[in-house]
């Protein structure tokens, strides 16, 4: 156990090793914004982002409950959590595509967050709404790469781990995605 | 590169989740006093999920619900009176994760008034599975919210109180505290009397039904089955509905 602890400077991992529930609170506090932002910009809908985030953290907790201390000590929590989120997103998107589409015209791209201040919302919306809508027009793999790289600022090496593709492929998805966003934005 | 408006715009798309999201994921726990000692209670944004007595709460909750547990600052509104009186008065229960059968058993159990008991076979009949008496016992033994759903009011028809999530002793204590005369029930069962009828009203009841408790000795008649009482000209009570009982 001592060996494990000295191997483990990351506060989230340390908390998880001490107590699963308190560790979970640390994990949530450290990564909720990252997971939620990614979910929001991948799905384009506030309600879906809440669903995906809740599901990803629940799955993470259930997985951790079965992990040995050695496995937790060796965990890269951020990449591991984002991998879970990507699985949730793919599964949910697949399930949705089987269902008939709901009224897409009426559906807002993003619902208002009741917790967000009016001013902050207005500023974010000005640039946010349009760009968020453009993101929705990218193919899934380009959107995922662009969101992970430029919205939540993950390093390319970690994105490669999360998406299970080579780093070179990550870079080409990102640059193609950005080129497409510029073209789409310029066309407006 | 950092001045690129597209990249600046993308970076500004990050957002924080609402505060309430954590309560969709994690349950809260709190320790509370109750008629049978201290209890640990877990609840979610859907309502009370788990009532536990004794040690091993965290482990038991984790195995059963697989949900993170965070401490609560205070008990949710309405919990303490509900534990004391057995009346929920609007307190919500989180029964997600139970099967339809378990939920039906618990719903039927909720209808048993304080101070009264019903046999396991009555619950089975009420939910339309008269042969599933054993499964009813198992479902009650897994009741996640004892006291709030009064599974202690379901007893064996032979006069013994039967098993209980918190142990037989606790079950007897709760029933006695609610005014159930267990000695009398045992005595009646010893004489093979499971129903009481009144020759003034012509109605046959379970012995603990409030209508049966009002019958004076001179007008009281005991029966072994509802069929026998019917044959003697009695109709089943509309309050305790003993007709739905079947011989075990």
From TrEMBL, chain B:
Residue ranges of domain Ada DNA repair metal-binding in the record: 192-242
UniProt keywords, alphabetically: Activator, DNA damage, DNA repair, Methyltransferase, Transferase
Molecular-function GO terms, alphabetical: DNA binding; methylated-DNA-[protein]-cysteine S-methyltransferase activity; zinc ion binding
Keyword DNA damage included in the entry's annotation: yes
Any Gene Ontology biological process: regulation of DNA-templated transcription
Membrane spanning stretches: none
Annotated Methylated-DNA-[protein]-cysteine S-methyltransferase DNA binding domain residues: 100-180
Its EC number(s): 2.1.1.63
One Pfam family per UniProt: DNA_binding_1
Top-level division of the source organism's lineage: Bacteria
Class of the enzyme per the UniProt entry, highest EC level: transferase
Keyword match DNA damage: yes
Catalytic activity: a 4-O-methyl-thymidine in DNA + L-cysteinyl-[protein] = a thymidine in DNA + S-methyl-L-cysteinyl-[protein]; a 6-O-methyl-2'-deoxyguanosine in DNA + L-cysteinyl-[protein] = S-methyl-L-cysteinyl-[protein] + a 2'-deoxyguanosine in DNA
Family as reported in the entry's similarity comment: Belongs to the MGMT family.
NCBIfam families listed in its UniProt record: ogt (TIGR00589)
Annotated PANTHER family: METHYLATED-DNA--PROTEIN-CYSTEINE METHYLTRANSFERASE
Protein's UniProt name: methylated-DNA--[protein]-cysteine S-methyltransferase
Annotated source species: [Actinomadura] parvosata subsp. kistnae
